[in-house]
């Protein structure tokens, strides 16, 4: 059966060619409003009304309006714009499948967090600052402030594809991994905790990794009350969404020493204004929403879609299914 596939992601030519060739004999519509950034919301496009499948970042209203759509694959791990009861119930009612691309970004985000855990433990950002500033030789502080990751406790706020991959990468360090998620079913080598146990888990954790998506339940989740529960000197990492953190409370926790350090790949807003106090907060380190970055991102997104296309056609389970 021939399908019509609509796409509004502008891929690099090798990936675009792979998509064009691999979807044949199906029809491929590339939106005139295609965008190269997966983080940019799609604009309305009437041509999506001809499609059975949408791939990229389709406008939410277009997805709701055109009930011909049988499957939507998002080109991102995050799906904030689509994470509403109204949207998901509308898709369920007509049998439309929704998938994201978490699997494409899980390894890169997990490696990014692990890199920061290790570099903070070994005092690498601090030494880099010394090299870029006055070339001072802080032997005693750097040597005796260094910490081992081995045997520490890591709390994951969220346990999807990124959290699972990070737990795998942490295994050789024999850390204790706690994970907060809505479904409290057991996981191998991970202690899944319910929401009501979050305060005691924060008090136990040496590292708190926020991987929460943005929705009504998570906005401002990391607030002053929860930060006050953290073990003194704990390190906080955010690769979820900036809106899930009360940044004023985070700033206070850094200034008071409650948190030993923070690493932020996401902020609110983005880009973070140059005058924002988090840029100069003590032991706060920021990257510009690059944790998911990988040089072969376009190729990986296309391959993820093609694998799911084959599953969609055969009725097999689809990867990273949301609805």
TrEMBL record:
Signal peptide range: none
Q: Which SUPFAM superfamilies does the entry link to?
A: Formate/glycerate dehydrogenase catalytic domain-like, NAD(P)-binding Rossmann-fold domains
One GO molecular function term of this record is: oxidoreductase activity
* Domain (D-isomer specific 2-hydroxyacid dehydrogenase NAD-binding): residue spans on this chain: 114-291
Taxonomic superkingdom: Bacteria
Q: Which residues form a coiled coil?
A: none
Annotated keywords = NAD, Oxidoreductase
Q: CDD domains given for it?
A: 2-Hacid_dh_1
Q: In its keyword annotation, does this UniProt entry include Transferase?
A: no
PANTHER family according to UniProt: 2-HACID_DH_C DOMAIN-CONTAINING PROTEIN (PTHR43333), D-ISOMER SPECIFIC 2-HYDROXYACID DEHYDROGENASE NAD-BINDING DOMAIN-CONTAINING PROTEIN (PTHR43333:SF1)
Q: List the protein's name.
A: D-isomer specific 2-hydroxyacid dehydrogenase NAD-binding
Supply the source organism for this entry: Opitutus terrae (strain DSM 11246 / JCM 15787 / PB90-1)
